[in-house]
Amino acid sequence: MDYKQQIAEALSKPLTDVLSTEQIKKLIETPKTSTMGDLAFPTFTLAKSMHRAPNDIAADVLSKIDQSNFEKVVQAGPYINFFLDKGQYANEVLGTILQQGSHYGDFDEGHGGNVPIDMSSPNIAKPMSMGHLRSTVIGNSIANLLTKRGYHPIKDNHLGDWGTQFGKLITAYKKWGNEADVRKDPITNLVAYYVKFHQEDVEHPELDDEAREWFKKLEDGDEEANRLWKWFSEVSLKEFQKVYDLLGVKFDLYNGEAFYNDKMQEVIDILKEKNLLVESRGAEIVNLDEYKLNPALILKSDGATLYITRDLATAIYREREFNFAQNLYVVGSEQTYYFKQVKAVLLKMGFKSAEHMEHIPFGLITVNGKKLSTRSGRIILLEEVLNDSIALAKKQIESKNPDLKNKDEVARQVGVGAVVFNDLKNERILNIDFNLEDVLKFEGDTGPYVQYTNARAQSLLAKAGVELQQGNYALTDEKAWNTIKLLDEFPNIVKEANDEHEPSVVAKYTLHLAQAFNKYYGNTKILVKDGDLDNRLALVKSVSVVLTEALRLLGVQAPSEM
């Protein structure tokens, strides 16, 4: 039940000449502690219009309120504090969760509207480093949230499978490569060739000319260049899939940059047809003065296209193919200005769908304080980090619960979940530093802490051996109150996280719920066979249902034992 609405309606009678019910609802606050009340209405804002002191207004309004639906309503200075009927509230919250299960918090806001999500996007012939983690897991969680709100997300892994780097790689392979080595360990060797190219071209700049020639051959359909490009792409995708399998991330599309090679000319034609291209120092640009942006460079002086040409073609393709409700790009914050330019050019071209195009930026990830770079050779492989995390999780599980039957599976769930949760608990715009030992702690603001809390709840339910039926779960225990109120908040949390494309809202919520439940668990004998046993078990099960679903939205699994 919407208790803010109930309070707003109770207040609307004495305030009918001053505020609408909706205006009252927006002013309702949550006190700092439940001892002050569960919800409160401040009267400060009414003082000017009513020409009265806030305290007097509060006393007068309180005397005219129907208090029958509340435990009590009291005045605290300029505030009217509402204490909810605990039994009625608990029964409604717990009953709803037990009835709806994992669908608790679902809402058909999107009506099945398509939402392509540009995410992950590693470069072919380069490894998936820790630098690829953020776009992948943030995009995946946003897709889960969209689904829960009734949208149809389309996860598009926009692979970096085209560009001058392939000229460099082919040049390096031809000079220093070996087919047998590449077949044995493709990514390691291809990266080694790429790094060597950048080391050698410092003293041998002629290598850049060779690389440009090879890329020109690739663009022109040269058989050898095309064969190597396809081979590099195939072996790279196989390696990427190992990481995606560990993360449990699946994609709907793998439309890489090369997919749009035959779609860029239309972009140029439209720009010319609308007289939007302007010559500048031999190159061709689109002026964006009305958007207070720098000009967008569309064609180089030699007629070559740039990234923006391809991204314009991509956005147009997605509009036609999906008729999208939203078009999302989960790309690092360093590209914020660039995406403003892309959006502005699309609008000038007449594509109104660009109004629904949104760049979802995120900060950098460092590992133990160091930035990552493929070109310099300082690479921390994501697959290795995930495997190391799994190994460390298994070691901790063996010390805590040596008799656990499915240690390997639980270690995978905990190890991978710890890495994902650590990323998503931070507001995405922030830079984060990764330290493996810290993210795998079973105490503190970590994924394993939330997973362990859920496993504890599952263990309690297994020990009880009670099949809860739909009933009246009027739990009035003061110790359970904060947990019940947090459970009630979950649908609002899902909405906020989806509206803001901010998975950290869900991650932080799981920590608060886990902390509240553990406090309750530490101060309450749950399995005592008395009249409240089913009520307490209903709370335990509701916590497990919500934690499991919240973790799923983050892309984290919830083992039943740890």
TrEMBL record:
Q: Main site of residence? A: cytoplasm
Q: Which reaction does it catalyse?
A: tRNA(Arg) + L-arginine + ATP = L-arginyl-tRNA(Arg) + AMP + diphosphate
Q: Name the Gene3D superfamilies on file.
A: Arginyl tRNA synthetase N-terminal domain, HUPs, Isoleucyl-tRNA Synthetase, Domain 1
Cross-referenced SUPFAM superfamilies, in alphabetical order? Anticodon-binding domain of a subclass of class I aminoacyl-tRNA synthetases, Arginyl-tRNA synthetase (ArgRS), N-terminal 'additional' domain, Nucleotidylyl transferase
Outline the extent of the DALR anticodon binding domain. Answer: 450-562
Tell me its EC number(s), please.
6.1.1.19
Tell me the GO molecular function terms: arginine-tRNA ligase activity
Question: Which Pfam families does UniProt cross-reference here?
Answer: Arg_tRNA_synt_N, DALR_1, tRNA-synt_1d
- Mind telling me which InterPro entries this protein's record contains? Arg-tRNA-ligase, Arg-tRNA-synth_N, Arg-tRNA-synth_N_sf, ArgRS_core, DALR_anticod-bd, Rossmann-like_a/b/a_fold, tRNAsynth_Ia_anticodon-bd
Q: What class of enzyme is it?
A: ligase
The chain positions of domain Arginyl tRNA synthetase N-terminal read 1-84
Checking NCBIfam families in the record gives: argS (TIGR00456)
Q: What is this protein called?
A: Arginine--tRNA ligase
